[in-house]
Amino acid sequence: MNDIADRFFTAVSRGDEAALTDLYAPDAQIWHNDDGLEQTVAENLRVLRWLSRTLENLRYEEIRRYELPDGFAQQHVLRAELPGHGRIEVPASLFVKVNDGQITRIDEYADSAATQPLYEKAANDRENRR
């Protein structure tokens, strides 16, 4: 499980969409506490692509990982630089289910106050495209 977890977070940090696609089961679901919605793999990859283009020096720190019978849980602080805003720090926890070496589900709990600058940036990006 540690290998899958390491590969997953390295791929997210690097914006490596090919590695993420290989790690996700085709029908994986990704849920976030801030909106209560489940994303498909394609939807999640679109968000992660935006994050990797938008954030500078994205990294995971203060990692605490726990192996579970069907996957792993990880607590961490995502740190990065958001141009026009400055440093962001997002405490988060993920519960990840793995089957046959692929991620089948992620339940992510992130500090919604800490993610507010990201939502504002995304809204501004959408507005600027109109």
Topology:
Layout: H1 2-14, H2 17-23, E1 24-32, E2 38-39, H3 41-54, E3 56-68, E4 71-82, E5 86-99, E6 102-110, H4 112-129
Parallel strand pairs: 1-6
Antiparallel strand pairs: 1-2, 3-4, 4-5, 5-6
Helix pairs in contact: 1-2
CATH architectural label: Roll
- How much helicity do the residues have? 40-55%
DSSP helical segment count = 4
- Reported by name, the CATH topology is Nuclear Transport Factor 2, Chain: A
Number of strands: 6
CATH class: Alpha Beta
Task: Specify the overall morphology.
Answer: globular
Explain what this protein looks like in three dimensions.
There is one protein chain. The protein is α+β, with helices and mostly antiparallel strands and 130 residues long. The protein contains four helices and six strands, in the order ααββαββββα. The protein has helices at residues 2-14, 17-23, 41-54, 112-129, and strands spanning 24-32, 38-39, 56-68, 71-82, 86-99, 102-110. The chain has a six-stranded mixed beta sheet with strand order 2-1-6-5-4-3. Helix 1 (2-14) packs antiparallel against helix 2. The mean pLDDT is 93.
